[in-house]
Amino acid sequence: MSGHGKESVGNGRTDMEQHSSEHVSTNLLLAILATGIMAFIGILTETMMNVLFPELMTEFHIDTSTVQWLTTGYLLVVSLVTPLSSYLKRKLPLRRIFLIAISLCVVGCVMAAWSLNFPMLLLARILQGAGTGVALPLMFNIILEQSPKSKIGTLMGVGNLVCAVAPALGPTVGGIVGTFMPWRWIFVLLLMFLIASGLLGMKTIRQATPNVDAHLNPLHVLCLIVAFISFIFALEQGGAAITAISKNLPGAMSQLTRPIALLVVSVVALIVFARWSSRSFSPLVRLGVLRSTTFRWHLLAYVLLQSVTIGFGYMIPNSCQLGYGTTPLLAGVLVLPGALLGAAVAPISGSLLDRYGAMRPISIAMVIAPLGTVLMATLVGPTTGVVLISGCYFLYMLGFSMCFANTMTSGLSGIAPQLRADGNALFSTFQQLSGAVGTTVMSVFLGVAQAGSDETGTSSFAAATLKGAHWGYVALMIVVIAAMLANIRAFVAAHKENRA
What main location does UniProt list (predicted)? Predict the structure, then answer.
């Protein structure tokens, strides 16, 4: 792997002609587009499915805890597959990795469109999760490895546009689908885009660096499987336990034992994985990237920002439908202006990084993003209406889009070029886990507030929902501020490292 350093983004050169100059070739742009479409579709379905849950519960005769596995199981598989990206990049040609990803996504989409029962739909979502777990880091690896150094910020902005806009658009797409067509049709439409992505990627993706003889240790994979499954189950059961406690159900306190035990198992498995990786000649992910203080703080900021965005994607549609009585379509449309703004701003913020460095666009975001959440937490209430929610979210997305991609780019620039695939794997993995955390925490706020109220559709239930949403917005405000402080700490660390 040491040979990769000469061809990496660190000095802006590879054997490929487009990387040796400052020109971004059409072929590279199309390769990024092909992988980006696949990753976008995968992330889009994360939040899209939330709006479709009521319809799916009716059709398959299942309850809320069961239908949630369409998202929880998907996120779990993405989180398990993403850490393999560094190993796959070292072992296999990029085109073969792309073929694996697109095959999984296409088969999953076909199964989802023609699902006869819930287990079949769940299996389809698992296959889609595996495909997304391969596609997302592949897109960033292509950008980092093959882009001219002066264009990395812009292209990383385009790549992170997928991560930022797709979950925000999910409720809108889900609302439109739920209103105007059967839910299966969305997978038929997505299948067409996936086929186009596959044809485009197989023609345009090129190999920039040679593969090496990497080895996969099954015990390392087993540790990650145990850690992530335990973590996801701990989140789910912990949320259910807290909701049960708020309802004063018999034996509710004892329900906390299992999630706490699962969390301990997850931590122990991660510690074992870290120790084994440090002693391995061919680790699954080279954790030496975490020695960089700058990288660690940027990674934390990135994870916190993603959890907030996914949290908003869950809270806004659900609170508007259950609290204000809006239709699924209107609830989804409320986040559309912010999503479109994010799509426009992400590449612009990347170009600002190319011209001025990461500190300037992130500093602007440090003002705008917290302001949007502060307004959401302090102004939104039962009598304010949904337009104000859309406006506050619009302001948050402006700051988020200025900061999100640049946080990742700045974090990866602070580590050795040959470790950037590993750093990318960590960013992508924790991005998915943070999405699960954001969704679970927001559902707990709603569940606790709704405990003891009347049935769904009553005025007391609506009032309880809006109360839970308010405290959820307060929590998201605190997390955004923490993310900005983490970015400040990263810049301080980078300044000290540069002086040293």
Answer: membrane
Domain ranges, residue 184: 2-216+282-499
In 3D, which of 301, 308, 306 has the Cα closest to residue 476? 308
The one-letter amino acid code at 174 reads: G
Q: How far is residue 391's CA from residue 341's CA, in Å, rounded to a whole number?
A: 12
Same domain, 328 and 378: yes
3-state SS, residue 402: helix
Picking from 260, 281, 302, the residue at the C-terminal end of a domain is: 281
What pLDDT digit, counting tens, does each position of 144-199 carry?
Answer: 888 888 888 888 888 877 777 787 788 788 878 778 888 899 899 999 999 999 99
Q: What are phi and psi of 405, to 5 degrees?
A: -65, -40
CA–centroid distance for 183 within its chain: 23
Q: What is the CATH number of the domain that holds 199?
A: 1.20.1250.20
Count of positions (residues) in the chain: 500
- The total domain count for the chain is 2
| Cα–Cα distance measured from residue 1 to residue 132, given in angstroms and rounded to the nearest whole number | 25
Residue type, 418: Q
Segment 236-280, tens digit of pLDDT: 788 778 877 877 777 778 888 999 999 999 999 999 988 888 887
